[in-house]
Prior knowledge:
Immunoglobulin-like, Gliding motility-associated C-terminal domain-containing protein, eight-stranded mixed sheet, mainly beta, 6 domains, PKD_dom_sf, five-stranded antiparallel sheet, 3% helix
Amino acid sequence: MLRSRDTNIIKLTTFILAILCHYQFAFGQVDSDNGLFTADYASGCAPLTVNVSPTEPSEADGFIYEFNGNFAGIVEDESYEYTEPGIYTIAYIKNAGASDPETDFLTITILPAGTSPQFDIFTCKNNEILIDFSRDENFENFTIRYGDGSSPEAVNSPQTQVRHTYSIIPNPINIVVEGNNNTAGDAGNCPTVTEGVNLISGGLTQADFTEVITENYSSSDGRITLNFNLQDNNIYRLYQSTSTNGFSELDTITGTETSRTVTSLNTAANTYCFRVDAYDACDNTFVQSVNACNLRITGQATNAQNQISWVTSTTPLSNLAIYRDGNLFDDVSPATNTGSWNDTDLTCNQDYVYFAETFYAGTNDLNGFSMTSNTVTLTALFNEPLPATSNLIADINIDESISLTWTSPDPKYDYQILKSTNNSKLVPIDRVNVEQYTDEATDLDFINCYSVRTADNCGNFSKNDPVICPTILDGEFIVSSGTADLQWTEYISEEYSVVDYEVQYLDQDYNLLETLYAGQDLSIIEKPVNIVQRAYLRIKILLSDGSIVYSNLVPADLSPAVIHPTAFTPNGDMLNDEITFFGRFISNYNIYLYNRWGEFIKELDNNNPTWNGIVKGEEVESGTYVYVIEGVTETGAPFNQKGSITLIR
Length: 649
């Protein structure tokens, strides 16, 4: 048991803590710093149990374990388990109760669980290997067992490479490597590594390319896949050249690999060549492969032709095969490193997917290899002039839709309809395959103009097609007088002139009753002679080619009524001495006249519709007189009308 701690022990502990802080990152040994104790491990992998033993034990001995900034106390235990990676210090106190005890220290390095040696084994010709430890950061030295019955070999830092030649070749060859620190066996709880090796009994085997595939066309994300046959027990190095600018090493490849994809390439601008060289690490010699370069294609769609261009730096080549939509389409022989090919067997607006494949025709590769390009998608274009339409005319229908008709020199085409509203730009509104069109989305408050151009399925249109603007009739039919006050827009045609504008007065069935005007004017004020109750007004336009088109209709309806002057002057001057009531669309009617006091004074009818201002032989005085009319319309419907007239003497 430890004695009671007194002031000396407290001072000693403080002293030990200071020293521990100094030593906790020092690289330790199996023997303690001053030789007062030993440990079976100074390093190892977690979890690691370290056993310590004083060289001259005394009753007052003690240890402080796992000091890493925290004081854990002095104990007599001579064993401690470290569970977490890190660098620790064991402190030993001899004669702990003495006023001047002896102290000693040992640094313990704990590696993460499962830490094993890191190394590379290279096979060399004539049954020799080279082991390279340069990438290991955890162990000071290594023990190698070559698996051929020879004695284990120790490799000490800073030596990082060791060579070994096999005279007896066991089958298989398994090389075992153990990592150590300080002395052999230290860190012995860390796992060893066993690696199988196939020796090269003779010389190196050249790499045999089978395919070079350009996976995609990209300025930053291009990818090229290399397929090859390698000798299993060889080590190979992969080299890359960009547009013949010289080769640089990319990576080391084991002989068991059959494919490698190189990424982040600019396949849109560059071609790339590759070598896979068999490598002898022992004497740093190589057996070079052939230069295998990728095949890159670009494409351009022109009028009725898709052009494919290719480039590769591989030489010599055999034929070059062109594939379209996944199928072999054509063959170029002999193939050149750069060239182009044209596809004219096309349908417009159809997408075509192309790629090319060529073959190495030299003798430097063992079996030859193919080069497959990226894919290119082109949409076939056909740019050709189309014949313009002609004989375009425009009619406004009864429902105020506008009908267009035209002729085309070739009915195989479609027709695109363009429209302008109030002098705006002509814009497409529809597409048809017949030589007529009706625009139902019209607003006759605006000027509507049209053009029709020929169109095909390849995006081509005719040019300089005629523009036409139908005549729009506006104005009113004055009910009180039955007078037409009309104005209309000019009929605009780039092909025909207007011979005549004819103003037509039509019945309710659109039959012509009367022509009110014929000429070049664009407005009239005219009154039909034979007025009907339901009627319409319309412009008939005669064109220079003999065609006739029409404007919209304006209603000219008149309701049944009794028409009369508003005043008369029965003063004997023979001017306006009487007032007459005229019935319009009324078969029979009676007129009852009343004075301003509401007294009935006179009755008239359709047979006697005139009054001279005399009642019972006496002239009535000036003033306003009210009338009430009762009758029957021409259709037999009851009719009533009230109003007033003014008598002036």
